[in-house]
Request: fold
Amino acid sequence: MDNQKRILVVEDERDIAELVVHYLQREGYRASQAADGRTALSRAESELPDLLILDLMLPGMDGLEVCRRLRQSHRTADMPIIMLTAKTEESDKIVGLEMGADDYIAKPFSPKELVARVKSLFRRLDRNEEPTPAYKYGPLVLDRGRFEVTDDGREVSLTAKEFGLLEALLNGRGRVLTRDYLLNTVWGYDYYGSTRTVDVHIRHLREKIPLLAEAIVTIKNIGYKLRESP
Ligand code: CA
Reply:
């Protein structure tokens, strides 16, 4: 199955590593092990596992350092990490979490407890991965995930800025949005254009999507408002 989660277990104590891998595999996860920090780091970067179970005490580069480096790298900054440690002091827990671990398990732990924590972490992560919203406005649908706008099922060809502007209008429907607000939201604060740019793009939107000719209301000298409903 391709949707099996891949877990890399980083632990130099072989008995513990093998036990953990065994329990995870029994739960259907694709688990494998690495015995030191450098191997863990290079495998995490090349294989991009769905979860790293990372022991704090490792020969050479320790778990905190591995965690810190993963968080610094663009590719692995969001990789879920559960830290393992023999130390039980609260300060170590705080250090681990500050370094960016998502959860923390103190040794000795039961494999069952570990599996339960892994499952709960994946559940939490899956909940956060909600699909990107699609905006509906009468027959008009803006789908952010697909970067697509359809009018009564027909695709409308928009430029990136027109798309952003329409999204901003849909997001703030019923409210008066100033030209400055729209300029900053769509073009960014470091854009040196004038608010005329907004007017030009609004005109294009009204031309491309007839429904918007009426629905986008010009608020003289201030900006624009998309009617609450078309
Ligand atoms: Ca260890």
Remarks:
- The chain has a mean pLDDT of 88.
